[in-house]
Amino acid sequence: MSKIFRNSALLLALLLSLSSLLLACGDATSTSAPAKAAATTASTTSASTTSVSPTTAAASTISAVTTASATSAVSATTSAVTTAATGTTSAATGSATTAANGPLTKLTLAMDWVPNTNHTGIYVALQKGWYRDAGIDLQILPYADGAIPDVLVGQGKADLGISGEDGVATYRAAGQPVTSIGAIIQHNTSGFAYLKDSGINRPRDLAGKRYAGFGAAYEEPVIAAVIKKDGGTDTKIQNITTNVGGYQAVAAKQADFVWIFAGWDGIQAKLDNVNLGMFFLKDSGIPDFYTPVIITNDATVTAKAAALKAFMAATSKGYDYAIANPKDAADILMAANPKGTFSNPELVYESQAYLSPRYKEDAPKWGQQTLEAWTGYPKFLFDNGVLQNSEGKPLSKELDYNKLFTNIFLP
Fold first, then answer.
1. Considering its fold, how many domains does the chain have in total?
2. Share of the chain above pLDDT 70, in %
3. Which of 114, 146, 189, 303 has its CA 20 to 30 A from that of 347?
4. Is the model's pLDDT at 327 over the cut of 60?
5. Could you tell me if residue 171 is inside a domain?
6. 3-class secondary-structure state, position 333
7. How far is Cα 278 from Cα 256, in angstroms, rounded to an integer?
């Protein structure tokens, strides 16, 4: 989920302006994926092989923007695109550019974090040749620190990206024409983790505690809402910086609680014998929201409709396979990436076993999205003054929630 805004207003505006300038100067994309991520937006989100942020890549990369400078963030984003020229993962093998019935259509996908079980269905479809069979040459842009999938997609530097509902709402508010075309997971699997022997027993006990934050503008409003929902009146917390991330900050007792994904950090903590308790957002008064999601550009929706339809058909097939075959899908994910990407296969197997039944949980099919889910959390962000326009000022009018997503490309 999956780290937006530390001091963000003016810097985000500068980033968007500079990204536009980059686009005007020419497309650096050659041909060319969290963990949360990202960021996922740090997803998100959406998980890293060591630690996951609760927001996928949009979140993690916006934090990079605001803690460094807008100029360096744009440079990092451009670098990520350039890196794709040599670090591409492609659906087509070798130099093949044609399918049995004609040329392949190239689509680029910007990842939110390093490869993880949020992305399994994509790698399954890639390895089994289902994109190629659908006439798609999928080029995966490897994640790079500071790269923002929503900006790459919004500026036309990538056709597709992995983000989160929070990222889509945030960047849409700031003028980026990004739209979600499929939910990778149906329900939010993130929440606030703490040591079970810490004396924290219920959400209102978080008041006054040390929180290992990651610099997003929505963190404290979310924490305050969770405390209030449990009857707490004092919503102040100590938002601190630690020298380790994820649940490790709590395990090292540098912080009292942290925001993590249960499907990655939660499992890693269990494997490390760290006894965590967890308050899930969706059970704590926060509107349930999708993270991670697959995004595209509004212009791409029109210009490459047939290719997007073919891409989503193959992707859906990949996630359906992962739902039915968790262990085999985990093996495919690990085999599809360079040796050393996953240091602990047991983590991948257990994470996949956790996520596979959640990919389309309570939905008629994988990827399905609802207006209700795309209204609750973005409205929460708006009501708390988190959403800002391209000038860094809080929105004065709610977003058109219907424009944040579409299901038209699902098979």
1. 1
2. 75
3. 146
4. yes
5. yes
6. helix
7. 12
